[in-house]
Amino acid sequence: MEQETNGVVRLIHKGEEESQAQEDIWNCIFGFTEMAVVKCAIELGIPDFLDTHQQPVSLNKLSNVLGCSASLLYRILRFLTNRGIFKEVSTENGETGYVQTHVSRLLRRDGENSMAALVLLESSPVMLAPWHYLSARVAKENTAAFSAAHGKDVWEYAKTNPEHSKLINDALACHARVTMRAIIDNCAEIFKGIESLVDVGGGNGTTLSMLVKAFPWIKGINFDLPHVVSVAPHCHGVVHVEGDMFDSVPNAHAAFLMSVLHDWGDDECIQILKNCIEAIPKDTGKVIIVEAVLEGKIGKEKSLKDVGLMLDMIMMAHTSNGKERSAKEWAHILTEAGFSRHSIVQIPAIECVIFAYP
Ligand SMILES: C[S@@+](CC[C@H](N)C(=O)[O-])C[C@H]1O[C@@H](n2cnc3c(N)ncnc32)[C@H](O)[C@@H]1O
């Protein structure tokens, strides 16, 4: 057997392949432990506490402050340091101590680039339950996995469960903060001359408030369902408008949709996009879409390809008809919705930015 790594062909013996298969299958079977233990570390507040200390923190100090069993905490830290999530170093008096790494800094509850809320959402019992219905979804097509688990779709569920709705909005906001920084740094040109921008399915307004801060000439309209808008915090330069994007979209010079279209099937996306075209000027208007593009950037880079394909599975488990799309699939829905042209711009994020013109 031959295997190519970075252009080097290596001969692999049959025994090696079998032991690699054993390792791979154990990793597959117990892969969930990483998310579960990371969730535990966030809930205990380990990243937050280490972050407030410049020096390595000993196990005793950490267990005392957090009120944990030292022996159980040691095992949690041993697992996470082995994965590079925390780092073990000696304290001043020679004890074993722990410090943050680049990964664990992303797990602070409210750090600038915090991804903690996303971990807490995806590891919640509500979001894990639909995975048990994935095979039924694939076999029968008509049974959406989230609805099979909870009796309604994710947005209806959020409407009647304020706690879960908060979990969703916080998670989306932390993802939005990371992606928006990449957009603001790399696509500033495109926002010149846009006087008003409607963020369709804008969640709690995090995205728009960042855009309006970076480009203060923009009047922001954050458009989402009533139960989302009613609890959205006040954001300077942004008005919150409630409604249903399948009925209509508020008028603006441009429309913005981030991580919205991947929640829906092609016909639903075409309907939303037609409503966006209705809302913007025919001659100077544009629609800015932020979504993953499979087989584009993420086709080339293995790690991003993996994330894109994982996201596609998340869409299958958590939405009725949602999916991640290739450049060809995006071209299809944009043309069907009535756009005359579009371009796809790669940014340093999982998503690309798609500019579409009526
Ligand atoms: C995946 S979230 C994306 C939120 C935000 N754009 C972001 O990236 O953080 C999808 C959003 O679409 C909203 N949404 C779902 N159905 C909607 C509808 N019919 N009309 C308006 N918004 C809707 C949800 O409430 C949610 O905030």
Q: How is this structure best described in words?
A:
With 358 residues, the chain is α/β, with parallel strands linked by helices. The protein has 2 domains: 32-105, Winged helix-like DNA-binding domain superfamily/Winged helix DNA-binding domain (Arc Repressor Mutant, subunit A, Orthogonal Bundle), CATH 1.10.10; 179-357, Vaccinia Virus protein VP39 (Rossmann fold, 3-Layer(aba) Sandwich). The chain has 18 helices and 14 strands. It has helices at residues 14-29, 32-44, 46-51, 59-66, 70-82, 102-105, 116-122, 125-128, 134-140, 145-150, 154-160, 162-186, 206-214, 226-229, 266-279, 297-300, 302-318, 327-337, and strands at 2-5, 8-11, 57-58, 86-90, 96-100, 196-200, 219-224, 238-242, 254-258, 286-291, 293-294, 325-326, 341-346, 352-357. The protein has a 7-stranded mixed β-sheet with strand order 8-7-6-9-10-14-13, with helices on both faces. Strands 3-5-4 form a 3-stranded antiparallel β-sheet. Helix 11 (154-160) crosses helix 12 and helix 12 runs parallel beside helix 13. The relative contact order is 0.08.
Summarize this structure as a short list of keywords or feature phrases:
seven-stranded mixed sheet; binds S-adenosylmethionine; 358 residues; globular; Arc Repressor Mutant, subunit A; O-methyltransferase activity; 14 strands; COMT_dimerisation
Would you state the CATH class of the largest domain? Alpha Beta
The CATH architecture term of the largest domain is 3-Layer(aba) Sandwich
**What is the CATH third-level topology name of the largest domain?**
Rossmann fold
Spatial gap, N to C terminus: 53 Å
Low-confidence segments: none
Structure annotation, total helices:
18
- The CATH homologous superfamily of the largest domain is termed Vaccinia Virus protein VP39
Rg estimate, integer Å: 23 Å
Average of the residue pLDDT scores? 91
Task: List all distinct small molecules, including ions and cofactors, that are bound in this structure.
Answer: S-adenosylmethionine
Largest sheet: 7 strands, mixed
Shape field? globular
Domain O-methyltransferase dimerisation: 26-107
Keywords: Methyltransferase, S-adenosyl-L-methionine, Transferase
Pfam families: Dimerisation, Methyltransf_2
Active site: 262
